[in-house]
Amino acid sequence: MKLHEAKEFINKLCEVRWLDRSGTEQSCVSLIYDVTFVPLYGGYVVTDTDDIRLDKIVDIVAAETATPVAAVYSESMKIAA
Question: Does the N terminus or the C terminus of the chain have fewer Cβ atoms within 10 A?
Fold first, then answer.
């Protein structure tokens, strides 16, 4: 997966599948915060559960558009008041 392809999933809840060090496929459903390039390491997908190297990712599937944390917080404050 390329950097520009992965950037389409920023701020979305996605199922991410990747290969770990032993070659075993791992997966998680996670909010993708950022996709960035780290010098000497390459592309990384920054999620709420883990940072995953872009060259190890098998597939990313969007589950739904995620609600920003600030919006959830402001809604909970309205309910409490």
Answer: C
